[in-house]
Amino acid sequence: MATVTATTENPPQTTNLFQEFRAFLDKYGVIGLAIAFIIGAALTTLVQAVVADILMPLIKPALAALGENWQTAQFNAGPFGPFLVGHFLYSVIYFVIIALFVFVLAKFVLRQKAVGKM
Collapsing DSSP states into helix, strand and coil, what is residue 14? Predict the structure, then answer.
């Protein structure tokens, strides 16, 4: 008596290049990363506009004691040439303001409510 066994193997599925690419995008979350990058670029423009157009004009009168053109102030270091201390100071102030603004924005946007015990 001969026995016949049936195989339950699924035949290999053929996928086209588009399906493989879509699986790649889904697996590694590339779409979400791309969206985050685009939003980050837009947020960068917004933060720079707030700092340059709103906050720096409020700070510039306090820096007027350094002179009208304080951003172009130089320190001559002899054989090393001039150091652009005014531009450096401007960059430090700009960075601190942006970092503070992003911190406050992130704290506001990412604020989570504390979970209480039940």
Answer: coil
